[in-house]
Specification:
single chain; 225 residues; mainly alpha; Arc Repressor Mutant, subunit A; Tetracycline Repressor, domain 2; 10 helices
Length: 225
């Protein structure tokens, strides 16, 4: 009797709004999409399979994301947002110059081998042969690259000139390191080897940025530029 009275007196949980239910559905869909991209790649991550993994109907998935390209663009946007948040946390309280640059680099490296990064890699590779996908994610990729360029310029303005080509060199190579070592992680390369490679690259970056002038290129023009 007492148990029944307590149950009857328990406050009823407020019903979720439609906005809240939709947000929860999108979160489940995106998380399942990342998981499948990580496990089976872009070709294996069909919308039907993603819906099943998320525990929603295909119709519910298509209500939130009418096209596969739109769904993949949402995955890329979420990853870009998470990268930005990781950068902001890593840079809090760190002085400008090389210490701040190294903190930013290490924040990027902390994503190596993560499911979200591998999923983003799968999507970027697939855009080569999918114009709809390329159109859907191209703006996000361009805006993120532009943001990182501006951020590096501000961080390193006390070290090198904003127009110094080394800024773009370290940005490109940091991306290459992050994506390349993620592939090595998927291939089960031991973490100790990954960490050793990152330590070597960090020393190389410090040496490059500490030079008084940018190294001269061996060619006056870039093929295909």
């Amino acid at each position: 009797m007492e148990a029944r009275e307590r149950t009857q007196q328990s406050p009823r949980q407020p019903r979720r709004t439609q906005v809240e239910r939709s947000a929860q559905t999108r979160t489940k869909i995106l998380s399942s999409c990342v998981e499948l991209l990580y496990k089976v790649g872009y070709a294996g991550a069909s919308t039907t399979r993603i819906a099943k993994a998320a525990g929603v109907s295909l119709g519910a998935l298509q209500h939130q994301y009418p096209t596969k390209a739109g769904l993949m663009a949402a995955v890329v946007r979420r990853f870009a947002t998470n990268r930005f948040l990781a950068y902001r946390r890593a840079l809090r309280g760190v002085p400008e110059g090389l210490p701040r640059f190294l903190a930013l680099s290490r924040a990027s490296w902390s994503l190596i081998g993560s499911k979200e990064l591998v999923a983003a890699m799968e999507i970027e590779l697939a855009m080569r042969e999918d114009k709809e996908l390329a159109d859907a994610i191209g703006d996000t990729l361009s805006r993120h690259s532009a943001f990182v360029r501006r951020l590096l310029g501000r961080i390193l303005e006390s070290v090198i000139e904003p127009s110094d080509p080394r800024l773009e060199t370290v940005r490109l190579l940091n991306n290459a390191i992050m994506f390349g070592l993620s592939l090595e992680t998927v291939r089960a390369v031991p973490k100790a080897q990954i960490d050793a490679a990152l330590a070597t690259w960090e020393r190389a970056m410090i040496a490059l940025l500490s030079e008084r002038e940018a190294p001269q290129s061996g060619s006056s023009s870039t093929p295909g530029a």
